[in-house]
Amino acid sequence: MLTLAERPDGLNILRPESVADGLPWLAAFAGAYQAIWSEPPYNERFSSEEASAVLQRALRIPDQITLLAVRDSGVVAGFAMAFPVASKPDVVRDIRGLLPIDSTYYFAELGIMEQWRQTGLGRQLIELRLQLIDRARFTHVILRTSATKNAAYEMYLRLGFEDTGVYMEVPSRRNDGSFRTDRRLFMAKVLDG
Fold first, then answer.
1. Separation CA 21–CA 27 (nearest Å)
2. Element housing 154 (H / E)
3. For residue 33, is pLDDT > 80?
4. CB contact at 8 A, 101 and 72
5. Which of 1, 42, 82, 163 has its CA 20 to 30 A from that of 144?
């Protein structure tokens, strides 16, 4: 496991490279994942097992980039995951013809616990993932965000992502136990050589 950054607020940004690297952080990650996605605009409900599986699955994908913003006390304040888009068939189906699949990277997850928002952590996790992408193999990045034009949307625009005008309906279990879809917008960025 690599430490990529030590922040003045006491958070360290780690890069686990295997499931074994992620195991010490699994329970804290699951709690953070559940808390972050239960809030608006997503209002999604995940069991601890489902949330833990997200991290374990990501760490098994070849060429993945997973980042955890943690405190030594065992707290996960934020996370970010990315991998080649070819590893995500449902996304490939919706963006085929929009971007070159074999040379596009997918920013799958970005979550920041409420008390660490507006501290630059989200931006730092995005920038670190962009730096870690193999530019010899990948020329584009794509991500999904809420169709609601919120602070995250504005941050992605400031970082050079463009609104593609392409949407995807994402089904999930909501806080009230119902299953519904919500609309996500694809944003894309061309990487510098």
1. 13
2. helix 151-158
3. yes
4. no
5. 1
pLDDT for 149: 85
Amino acid identity of residue 141, one-letter, is: V
pLDDT digits (tens, 9 = 90+) for 148-175: 888 889 999 999 999 999 999 988 888 8
pLDDT tens per residue, range 108-128: 999 999 999 999 999 999 999
Q: Residue 83, Cβ neighbours under 10 Å: how many?
A: 21
Q: pTM for the full model?
A: 0.94
**How many angstroms separate the CA atoms of 34 and 117, rounded?**
16
CATH number of 2-190: 3.40.630.30
Torsion of CA 134, 124, 111, 59, to 10 degrees: 30
Q: Is 117 exposed, middle or buried (0-12, 13-18, 19+ CB in 10 A)?
A: middle
Q: How far is CA 132 from CA 65, 81, 82, 161, 179, in A?
A: 7, 12, 10, 17, 36
Q: Specify the pLDDT at position 193.
A: 65
Q: 38 phi and psi, to 5 degrees?
A: -80, -15
Nearest Cα to Cα of residue 67 among 78, 53, 52, 54: 78
Band (40; pLDDT cuts 50, 70, 90): confident
Residue carrying structure tokens 């400031």: 158
**All residues at 6 or more sequence positions from 82 whose CB lies less than 8 Å from its CB, including other chains:** 64, 65, 66, 105, 106, 107, 108, 129, 133, 141
